[in-house]
Transglycosylase SLT domain-containing protein (Bacillus chungangensis), 118 residues
Amino acid sequence: METCYDWQGAKNLLYFMPCTFVGWAHPSCEGLGKGNIPREELVNLEVIKKYGGYGVDGNGDGIADPWNLEDAIFSAANYLANYGGADGDLKRAIYAYNHSEKYVEDVLYYVNLYQNDT
């Protein structure tokens, strides 16, 4: 599978910075959050728990892989829930995910379309 990159260096399907996925308490995490995290640590559920990351094993295979669609979606949901989504504050949660008012506006537009279509 091809790796996705954003302008800051996030590498995975939903553009998690490695330090956000595995946890900012990881010894290599600072600055923009690229870290120097070996893949075996990045996907390890115990390491993610230890360092307070948002990575989740969404497909039940025992690892949290940001390059696996199910894991990435569940991890993004975990992140959004922790930043207000679980309390219904979608605007705050989406802004925490991407610090752009335009991005928040666009996402909420599609949320509204989806809700009205179901």
About this structure: Residues 5 and 96 are 19 Å apart (CA to CA). Residues 1-82 form one domain. The longest helix spans residues 101-117. The two ends are 32 Å apart (CA to CA).
